[in-house]
Amino acid sequence: MDRGGDDLKLLGTWASPFVIRVKLALSFKGQSYENIEEEDLYNRKSELLLKSNPVHKKVPVLIHNGRPVCESQLIVQYIDESFRNTGHSLLPMDPYERATSRFWAAYIDDKLFASVFHGGRAKSEEEKANALKQAYTSVETLELDFREYSKGKPFFGGDSVGYLDLILGGMIPVVHYIEAHYGIKIFDSTRSPLLKSWMESFGALDAAKSVLPSVESLIEYSKMKQARAAASAATN
Questions:
Q1: Which of 88, 95, 138, 153 counts the most CB atoms within 10 A of its CB?
Q2: What letter does residue 40 receive in the DSSP assignment?
Q3: 149: closest CA among 109, 116, 105?
Q4: Per the CATH hierarchy, to which homologous superfamily does domain 8-82 belong?
Q5: Which helix (H) or strand (E) holds 70?
Q6: Topology of the domain covering 95-215
Q7: How many Cα atoms occupy the beta-carbon half-sphere of 4 within 13 Å?
Q8: What gap in Å lies between CA 146 and CA 153, rounded to an integer?
Q9: Euclidean distance between CA atoms 228 and 223, whole angstroms
Q10: Sheet containing 8-12, strands listed edge to edge, beginning at the edge strand earlier in sequence
Q11: Each residue's pLDDT tens digit, 191-222
Q12: What residue segments make up the domains of the chain, in order of their start?
């Protein structure tokens, strides 16, 4: 459980993979917190969010004892450093290994997630195909890294979950959604058997299951957003 005197609030939206990774960090560290859902980031952002993250005005934001921390990767690192006495360390203790973890975390966001995101926003089949090709290239590179990084163990952190597991873990609901909705497997037994096995092992952990939203809820959420966008376009 959390340490006495710690007041934690998380500003976010439940479907965001960036918010999910912060929730995963809090879950694996055994920290309770107040979840404050930002209902409509496109049209109306709360005063608390604007005050807490005036530069980017985005979620997630973790407010710890009144002080805001922004950007999901930095928040996960902050949680690890602030609650060292609960759970195991997420980031390696060795400075070189810590730097390597941060490098691959940036790779996940800048290459893998970015290509998946662009594919979902692409307006032409050619753009979608190019984005998917980039995603597969990123997955293949990450597969090789996992082979070396995990040393035959189930997680990036070895026998236990580490920093990179949480960074990539936030994408698991998106991966399931893409497969269910579009029939596209980002991780599969041919291209990335190790990452596919990793995803299954990570998703089966109690601390992960308590956080990761179901693919059904994401599909319904997507339908709601599409209906809302269509109604707004019709009104305008």
A1: 138
A2: B
A3: 105
A4: Glutaredoxin (3.40.30.10)
A5: strand 67-70
A6: Glutathione S-transferase Yfyf (Class Pi); Chain A, domain 2 (1.20.1050)
A7: 0
A8: 10
A9: 9
A10: 34-37, 8-12, 61-64, 67-70
A11: 999 999 999 999 999 999 999 999 999 999 99
A12: 8-82, 95-215
